[in-house]
Amino acid sequence: MKRTTFLILITFFILLLVGCDASSNNIDNGAIDTSIYKEQDQMLTDRDVISDYDGESIISISLLGTYIESSEHVEIIDRTVKISKSGYYLVTGSLDDGMIVVDAAKTAKIQIIFRDVSINHNSSAPIYIKSCNKCFITLEGENSLETKNSFVAIDENNIDGVVFSKDDLTINGSGTLNLVSPKNGIVCKDDLVISNSSIKIGARNHGIDVNNSARFAYCSLEINAANDGVHAENAEDTEKGYIYLLEPNVKINSSGDGLDASAYIQIENCQLGIETTSSENSTKGIKAEAGILLNSGKLNISSHDDGLHSNGSIIINNTELVVSSDDDGIHADEIIEIYGGKIDIIKSYEGIEALDIKLLGGNINIKASDDGINAAGGNDQSGFGGQFGGQDNFGRPGGRPGGMGGMGGMGGSDSSNGSVIISGGKIYINASGDGIDANGTLEISGGYVTVCGPTTGDTAVLDYDVSGTISGGIFVGTGASMMAQTLSSSTQGVISLSTGTQYAGTKITLENSEGEILLEAVPENNFQIVILTSDMMTKGEYYTVHIGELSGTFTAE
């Protein structure tokens, strides 16, 4: 006959770091400023996307290896073509150690059609847009541009890209373009648009480097770079230096950041793969100063540093995101909001980290070697620079004394001001540190949350400083007993149990008084405590818990 052993009910309030009557943190649930993000018609003109041109008035330029033929409408000096007037220019053929220079009035709009073009230059840019209002490069067929050796100055501009533009540049058309550079691939000192075309870049510095903006729409882009894949930076105007992606297919392999913007990054329905490798550079997958918006699409990020990193906020909506990171999976200094989609953080130091974290929907799976979810840093100091240090800044002075058995907090963050709010979605956390570390308040009002923690070290399923409340949804937590906290208050029944050490794979079942199964779980890790609560549980009613061969009936608190 199988022996039945009763479990021991944890004395809840001895385990709490703070009293149940602690005041909750006042958080502005609409705190993220979304006005920085733009609509499509603010980013792209019809001419950016539609690559039509007037074939009757076109000016032909023939590249013939070591010399050039054209009409009187362009200036040819040795192996250099100089375009100085508005119009349509058709370029064909190949050119060795030569270049095309656009040097026109600031009112001029120039469209250059590349039809199976190959240009290389020994020491400068094959395409140099020195002055115009806007230049369009329309791709037809297969095209290639290369700078073979180091860049040598030819005027007052620091030309350091195979395509170098001082003014607005659009690359469109249905053709392809292959770029090879000893430094940067494409450099634009104004706004860059790439639409519809297919571009491949190999660069020993940045793949693409812009001052004002990089905008990619309906295109295919492959970048191999020894520094950032796409780098957008404007030191003078904080509203510029942004990256916008609308339905492109992008693949980046970089020894720096995949996407790096001094303002913001907006991604709309993008197919994106990023891999960053260890180097002396910052090696984050996607990095932005003001904010990151992911709105639909499929992203796969493998990064040496944070997968997503914002010094401001991050919004994720209806996006399929896979992150493998040697540091944080998703990090924002201020706020992270997740509305929906499928997020798999398959490897991370800390899974999701921000001052305030709001999980409103989606299917979220987190694997972390430290905390799964961390609001406002934590006692391990990871919120103050990540595993590798240096760039996380929660911006709130102060610190706090340690809780029961815990270390004191480091200066630089008022850890009581952090928050985790969960109101929907299915969330699974497998963490070797704290499951949810809310250095302030934890509020659960919906969703299905599972935390699978370890039994070693000063870890806890839940770790909060002010309060941990639940008013809806389901929570299942297993982990260590040494630093255990349960929820401080609830509007539904909660059962918290000390189980002794149980092995990974031990099944947990919760039944109501009618014998109906309300919850089932099979933890991946060994565990010593269990926390169970559901909006189907009522305070004061009896429930039976089975844990492997153990079982017992308890009153929900």
Topology:
Blueprint (H helix, E strand, L loop, with lengths): L7 E2 L2 H4 L24 H4 L2 H4 L9 E7 L2 E3 L4 E3 L2 E4 L3 E9 L3 E5 L5 E13 L5 E5 L2 E7 L1 E6 L13 E5 L2 E6 L2 E6 L2 E5 L2 E5 L2 E6 L4 E3 L2 E5 L2 E6 L4 E3 L9 E5 L2 E6 L4 E3 L2 E13 L9 E3 L2 E13 L4 E3 L2 E13 L4 E3 L2 E4 L2 E7 L4 E3 L1 E4 L3 E6 L4 E3 L42 E5 L3 E6 L4 E3 L1 E5 L3 E5 L9 E3 L2 E4 L3 E6 L9 E2 L3 E9 L5 E4 L5 E5 L5 E8 L7 E6 L2 E6 L2
Parallel strand pairs: 2-6, 5-7, 6-8, 7-9, 8-10, 8-11, 9-12, 10-13, 11-14, 12-15, 13-16, 14-17, 15-18, 16-19, 17-20, 18-21, 19-22, 20-23, 21-24, 22-25, 23-25, 24-26, 25-27, 26-28, 27-29, 28-30, 29-31, 29-32, 30-33, 31-34, 32-35, 33-36, 34-37, 35-38, 36-39, 37-40, 38-41, 39-42, 40-43, 41-44, ...
Antiparallel strand pairs: 1-46, 2-3, 4-5, 44-49, 46-49, 47-48, 47-50, 50-51
